[in-house]
Amino acid sequence: MKHATLILGLVTAALGLFSLFIGSNPIPVFQALLDRLHDIPSAIAIVLTEVRLPRTLIALLAGAVLGLCGAALQGFLHNPLASPGLIGTSGGAAFGAVIALYFGFGSGLGVPLAGIAGALVATWTVYRIAGRDGDTLTLILAGVAINALLTASISLLLSLAPSPYAVQEIVVWLLGSVANHGSDDLWLMLPGALTGGLLLMRTRRALDALTLGEETAASLGVDLMRTRAQLFAGIALAMGSVVAVTGAIGFVGLVTPHLLRPLAAHRPGRLLGLSALGGAALLLAADIGVRLLQRATGASIQVGVITALLGAPFFLWLILRQRSPA
C-alpha cells in the first residue's frame, strides 16, 4: 500500500512537471520560472504562470476529485459500475452551468457559481427523495430519475437556445475541458474541492466496515445515516466545484477505482487516497495527450472526449464481466 501510494505520487508529480513543457509553442520552462521568481515581466513567464501552471493544477485537482468521488461512491453502494454522476451531482452542475450560459451569465463567476449551486440542489434532491432510511436501490433509482430529468432539461435548453453561438458555447462546455482557465478558476475550485475531499476521506473507516454488511457495520459503531449524509455532502461540494469549472469530464471516476482496487487489497477505505492520486494522473495524462494531438493536427479537442473514448470501452468490458456465464 505505501509503495503503491509512493509510486502513484511520483508518477503524478512527473506528469505534472511534464505538462508544463507541453503547449502549442515550446518555451524554456526553467528560464520562465527564474524570470517569475525575479519578477522579470517576460512573455514566457506570463505563459507559464498564467496559462500552463493553472491548467496543470486544475487538471490535477479535478482528476483527484473525480477519482476520489468515484471510489467513495462505489464503496458505499457496493456497485462497481457507480460513478459520481449516478446521484445527480454531475448532471446538476451541468444544468446549473447551462442555465447561466443560456441566460447570458457566462462571464466571470456566473458559470462556476451556478454549477456549484446546481450540484448541491440536485444531490440534496436525490437524498431527500431516497429518504434518510432509504436503501441503496431506492437511492440509485432516485439518482437515475433526477439524471434523466436534468438531461432532458439540458436538451430542451439546447433546442431553445437563442443563437448558434450559445449552442456552441454550451456544447463545448458540456464536452469537458481543463483548457482556457486561469488562476481565478483554480481558487474558485479549491475550497469546495478540499472541503468535500476531506469529508469523503473521513468516511474511510465506515466504508471498510460496510463491506461486512450494514448490520455488522452498525454493531461496530458506524452511523449509516451520518455516513450517507457526509458522503453526499462531500461529493456535492467536490464534484460541484470541479464540474462547474471544467465541464462534464466522464469516466475518470468510474475507471480509476477499478484500475487501483487490487493495490488497496479491495478495501474501499484504502482505495480513496489511491484513487485520488490515480485520477489526477489519468486526467493529466489525458490532457497531455490532447495537447500533443492539437500540436500535431491543429484541431481543437476537449479532454472530455479523450476520457470518454478511453473510458467507454472499459465500461463495456466491465458490463460484460458482470454478466453471469450462460
What is the topological layout?
Elements: H1 2-19, H2 29-37, H3 43-77, H4 89-102, H5 110-130, H6 136-159, H7 164-175, H8 183-201, H9 204-210, H10 214-219, H11 224-246, H12 252-260, H13 268-297, H14 303-322
How is this structure best described in words?
The radius of gyration is 20 Å and the shape is globular. The longest helix has 35 residues, at 43-77. By secondary structure, the chain is an all-alpha fold. It is 76% helix and 0% strand.
Report mean pLDDT, rounded to a whole number: 84
Query: Largest sheet, if any?
Result: none
Uncertain regions spanning at least 5 consecutive residues:
none
Multimeric state: single chain
Total beta strands: 0
The number of helical elements comes to: 14
Percent in helix: over 70%
CATH class: Mainly Alpha
What string, H for helix and E for strand, traces the elements in order? Answer: HHHHHHHHHHHHHH
What is the CATH homologous superfamily assignment?
Answer: ABC transporter involved in vitamin B12 uptake, BtuC
Q: How much strand content do the residues show?
A: under 5%
Q: What overall geometry do the principal axes of the alpha carbons give?
A: globular
